[in-house]
Fold this protein.
Amino acid sequence: MEAYKQGFIEFMVASDVLKFGEFTLKSGRRSPFFMNAGAYVTGAQLKRLGEYYAQAIHDNFGLDFDVVFGPAYKGIPLAVVTAIALNDLYGKEVRYCSDRKEVKDHGADKGGMLGYELKDGDRVVMVEDVTTSGKSIDETYPKLMAAADVEVKGLIVSLNRMEVGKGGVTTAQKEIEAKYGFPVASIVSMAEVCEVLYNREVDGRVVIDDRIKAALDAYYAEYGAKE
């Protein structure tokens, strides 16, 4: 496993972004873990977050693209910090863009997009926190394609939950790939999270002990999907 992946897993836990316990998801599933990217709130956290996304984009898709697009709302800061990190780490100058939940009907920047105004031929990498059902992409992808004739090079998410999507067979990430025709990758997967955290301490505590591991195993026995 790449060093930055292990670092990212420990970073999620230390930032109180990745939690273990019992949580009810939007889907109604009872999950033994939950990820909330909204918990990244400090300048230091956001700087590191952008660097992890930039490294994952570099490793999975390369740097041959023009725009980082983040679906509103959580995708907006993700797009911004990733664009900054791409410049800092690789000297790659890209623009950021996000959709608006409500179309702005006044001013010089009116319209349905925030940030860079997309143009025909732009090559776009999308960034999200986590994809459980693919619903947010279903909502934002049509907006993206309506704005200009762009090429989506791929989608990067923080965490691959490795559970079945809406179709009940494969992951939401694979469902998105099949539906829209662009690759989807994650910084880390839950398998990698378990590999790093099981019976290991982060900030002086064991994050995944035998009890949590049993709950995870039971969850994936019911909802798990192969890559």
Q: What stands out?
A: The two ends are 17 Å apart (CA to CA).
